[in-house]
């Protein structure tokens, strides 16, 4: 049985989110031992509520606005996102695994959390942003790192 002194001092509370993923990758890279405590976002635990300063804020209006946008606004947002992905792909050095070359960096960590879920969001919204035909290098990076 594990004693309190044997438990990692860091407890990461979360669920399948890019932000939790980012923190988890950073902790692993730094070699910091941690416990990952999965929490149910529909019924938040007292531990999460006590340590989460934004638990009372509501993002529902933002999500409703995003999914309810009219066609042209959504198309404009997709064009803007694709322009951003083109800029991102341009930063990938040819023949290297990471944005920084041979070593993983903060951009890889941050982008991997988004890349992990991008396909789900694309399917839900019916908008395809990252395709093999348009962004082959970025797609390869996502397969290897997300």
Automatic annotation (TrEMBL):
Segments crossing the lipid bilayer: none
The UniProt GO MF terms for this protein read: glutathione transferase activity
Read off the SUPFAM superfamilies from this record.
GST C-terminal domain-like
Pfam families per record: GST_C
A Gene Ontology CC term for this entry? cytoplasm
Give a GO biological-process term. glutathione metabolic process
Q: Which Gene3D superfamilies does this one have?
A: 1.20.1050.10, Glutaredoxin
**InterPro entries per the UniProt record, alphabetical:** Glutathione-S-Trfase_C_sf (IPR036282), GST_C (IPR004046), GST_C_Tau (IPR045074), Omega/Tau-like (IPR045073)
Where do the Glutathione S-transferase C-terminal domain residues begin and end? Answer: 69-142
| PANTHER family documented for this protein | GLUTATHIONE S-TRANSFERASE, GST, SUPERFAMILY, GST DOMAIN CONTAINING (PTHR11260), GLUTATHIONE TRANSFERASE (PTHR11260:SF789)
* Name listed for the protein in its UniProt record: Glutathione S-transferase C-terminal domain-containing protein
Organism listed in the record: Triticum turgidum subsp. durum
């Amino acid at each position: 049985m594990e004693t309190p002194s044997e438990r990692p001092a860091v407890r990461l509370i979360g669920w399948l989110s890019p932000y939790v993923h980012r923190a988890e990758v950073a902790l692993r890279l730094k070699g910091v031992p941690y416990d990952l405590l999965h929490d149910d976002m529909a019924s938040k635990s007292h531990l999460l509520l006590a340590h989460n300063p934004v638990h009372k804020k509501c993002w529902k209006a933002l999500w409703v606005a995003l999914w309810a946008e009219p066609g042209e606004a959504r198309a404009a947002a997709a064009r803007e996102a694709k322009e951003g992905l083109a800029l991102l792909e341009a930063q990938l050095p040819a023949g290297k695994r990471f944005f920084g070359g041979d070593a993983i960096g903060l951009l890889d960590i941050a982008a991997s959390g988004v890349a992990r879920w991008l396909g789900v969001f694309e399917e839900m919204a019916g908008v395809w942003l990252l395709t093999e035909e348009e962004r082959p290098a970025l797609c390869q990076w996502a397969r290897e790192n997300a």
